[in-house]
Design goal:
483 residues, mainly alpha, 17 helices, 2 domains
Length: 483
């Protein structure tokens, strides 16, 4: 069941009505109902993997209790290692078995051996990277005495499997979400209206921006050898907006759906393409994953306390691991390493924390310096995205080589296509709205239209019209479902 499908358009209102108007003020039954709805939501992809989700949940629930009750540090460590080991083993098998087998066999071949090996046709369980990290953060936090375990199996299971975040995040923390699950929730009209507004903007990002950009990004990347340098640049830009519209659109729908049910999820995007350096970009892109790696990998490795060498080493580790988290392809590892490389200069010059506030926070337009910084940062992000999108490292290198050719200075041939011009116009509209709303949690949270109801509803009608006009004929899967 996709967020951008007709099925979800029926599912969410049904859950909303039962949750608030049948089970209102009955917290226990609300949570049981949400849990049942979440498992149904997940089973719509493949009901067999519901058992894997349930096993992972039970493992972390029991491990958390055993860590808390353990009398010795060694026993606590045993249960932590057991939970982490089993979870990562499942994740490694489903995501990386073929990758490791193929690369190990290739290495042996290079040394003159002729290994016999076999790969498996493995179906990747949707959301396994996300719900695995939910559970791991829970046992880590109990082990580090940040939280105490919950003994309510329904509440914990709902924390792991809450349907808005189950398949593509944000990656929640028990410290943030569990207290909301455990306490009564009261219907708030303004919060629900805000949730609907964020869902609307998320649908626009996905169905108008991402899906239309995808058409031309795919066209260019799939035939990159026959494209001009200027077309290849356009393809990289289209993919940059495709992945942003797709993933941040998903996050907006997830946060809006949760808000309809009285629950606040962690913010996952904060206008990353308005960043002035790569360090700021990563504070604003996939925030829940970046902060997860910071808290559970970067800081335990020593963080920034051991001088420049340790800071650089740890930065490369978390970015390479982050890249590998995205999938079993060297392209993701190179993508992660590139982003680490882009950040190193600002770390060495101690400027990586310079841009904390949103750009032009006190003015309508950026300064020339800020504009230049944003363009450079966006260009670096697009360069790295080429590896993320490419089929292989070789494909990415050929793509980049094609950019830096004489044809780079030519007018992109793709601009002769009227559909491309329309997509570019939609992108301009999108960027303007995002810029106007950059100080808010999401672009249209406060429209800047005052209390003029006609203008507000006119804008909503425009967004709905654009979705109806430019949505694809079939629901397109979200990119991050594969991770």
């Amino acid at each position: 069941m996709f967020f951008n499908s007709f099925a979800y358009a029926l599912f969410l209102p049904f859950v909303f009505v039962i949750y608030w108007f049948v089970l209102n003020k009955k917290l226990k039954y609300q949570n049981i109902f949400l849990l049942a709805a979440s498992y149904y939501f997940y089973s719509c992809w493949d009901w067999r993997f519901v058992f894997l989700l349930a096993f992972s949940t039970a493992l972390d629930y029991y491990s958390g209790i055993m860590i808390y009750k353990a009398k010795t540090k060694s026993l606590q460590k045993f249960w932590l290692i057991l939970s982490v080991g089993i979870n990562l083993s499942f994740l490694g098998f489903f995501k990386y078995y073929n990758f490791f087998i193929e690369n190990f066999a290739e290495m042996l071949t290079n040394f003159g051996f002729k290994p016999h090996y076999f790969t498996l046709s493995i179906i990747l369980p949707v959301g396994i990277s996300f719900y695995t990290f939910h559970g791991l953060s829970y046992v880590f936090d109990i082990y580090n005495k940040r939280i105490k375990p919950t003994f309510n199996i329904v509440d914990y299971t709902l924390f792991v499997s809450f349907f808005p975040l189950l398949v593509a995040g944000p990656i929640e923390r028990a410290t943030h979400l569990l207290p909301q699950i455990e306490k009564p929730r009261v219907f708030d009209y303004s919060r629900a209206a805000d949730g609907l507004r964020q869902i609307l903007w998320g649908l626009f990002k996905k169905m108008v921006i991402a899906d239309n950009c995808a058409v031309f990004a795919n066209q260019i990347f799939n035939d990159s050898a026959n494209q001009s340098g200027s077309n290849l640049v356009l393809g990289a830009v289209f993919f940059a907006f495709q992945i942003y519209g797709d993933f941040s659109g998903y996050s907006d729908i997830a946060l809006g759906s949760a808000r309809l049910l009285g629950i606040e999820l962690l913010k996952n995007f904060s206008f990353p393409y308005f960043s002035r350096d790569i360090a700021e970009f990563w504070r604003r892109w996939h925030i829940s994953l970046s902060s997860w790696f910071k808290d559970y990998l970067y800081i335990p490795l020593g963080g920034s306390k051991g001088g420049n060498w340790m800071r650089i080493r740890n930065t490369f580790i978390i970015f390479i691991v982050s890249g590998f988290w995205h999938g079993s392809n060297w392209t993701f590892i190179v993508w992660g390493a590139l982003n680490a490389l882009f950040i190193v200069p600002s770390m060495l010059m101690r400027t990586n924390r310079n841009n904390i506030e949103i750009v032009a926070n006190d003015s309508a337009l950026p300064s020339l310096r800020e504009l230049f910084q944003m363009i450079i940062t966006f260009a670096l992000a697009c360069f790295a995205w080429i590896f993320f999108r490419a089929e292989s490292v070789g494909h990415a290198i050929d793509y980049i080589s094609g950019i830096f050719s004489k044809s780079l200075l030519s007018l992109p041939a793709l601009l002769s296509d009227k559909k491309v011009i329309v997509t570019i116009m939609l992108l301009v509209f999108f960027i303007v709205i995002e810029w106007m709303g950059r100080r808010n949690n999401y672009a249209i949270e406060k429209l800047g239209l005052g209390n003029v109801r006609v203008l507000r509803w006119g804008f909503y009608a425009l967004i709905i019209f654009l979705i109806a006009m430019y949505m694809p004929s079939e629901s397109a899967e979200f990119i991050y479902f594969q991770f």
